[in-house]
Specification:
By secondary structure, this protein is mainly β. It is 0% helix and 16% strand.
């Protein structure tokens, strides 16, 4: 399930991952490293909500 940054609206799509920041496609949101942040605004994981 995709998650949306509550601050800037960036959508983390697990099917796409975040390859620019070392997150492979297919990586579930729950499996992201604890230090991963929103690539757009730098928000922490706890600022993401269900889409």
């Amino acid at each position: 399930m995709a998650k949306v940054c509550d601050i800037c609206g960036y959508v983390y799509d697990p099917e796409a991952g975040d390859p620019d920041n070392g997150i492979a496609p297919g990586t579930a949101f729950e499996d992201l490293p604890k230090d991963w942040v929103c690539p757009t605004c730098g928000a922490d994981l706890d600022m993401f909500v269900d889409e």
